Amino acid sequence: MSxxxxxxxxxxxxxxxxxxxxxxxxxxxxxxxAPELVWLLEHPPLYTAGxxxxxxxxxxxxxxxxxxxxRGGQYTYHGPGQRVAYVxxxxxxxxxxxxxxxxxxEEWTIRTLGRFNVAAERRAGRVGVWxxxxxxxxxxxGSPREDKIAAIGVRIRHWVSFHGISINVxxxxxxxxxxxxxxxxxxxxxxxxxxxxxxxxxxxxxALAETFVEVFGRDVRPSAAA
Length: 226
Description:
globular; 12 strands; alpha/beta
């Protein structure tokens, strides 16, 4: 199995362009015409609707463009200051286990955030990655507050993955007010900078590359920005 390509875009990529690029690459991977790809990018401000999204969770439909994503999950926000990692891997050559793949994406995210001393965690019944907020008032029932720092939504076609993860570095968190993020109203969202950590996208990209090897077991080879 060849090493995955590792592409970092140095511009905001329109969502339709990203979808078309992923569709083409997934077809090429399946046909053996191209290696796997991890693509790091930012989008302009927008909302995406996953296959489980509920219309009532779109609170401000006119605020930003809304795109039907075709991935699993509900509504989420993408925008500048958020690192999106689209992961196109051939699970036929790895492990044909969707739950394990999602768990691996969570582990990749948790290990990456751990490089910045963030104790990120999974939560049963809530896909994504969370951080405890002891600095905030508890919920009305007394349970501690938690904020979501990373979202996960994937699609698998003929055992080739696409879509992936998004990690909040320094997005405008007020932009989440237009949706109920991932259908969860009881908890908020946060970012590395919101947690008081002066992390840049470039810092995060280095950590993502290092921890990818730890979780998925294959090196990545950088390619030019797009």
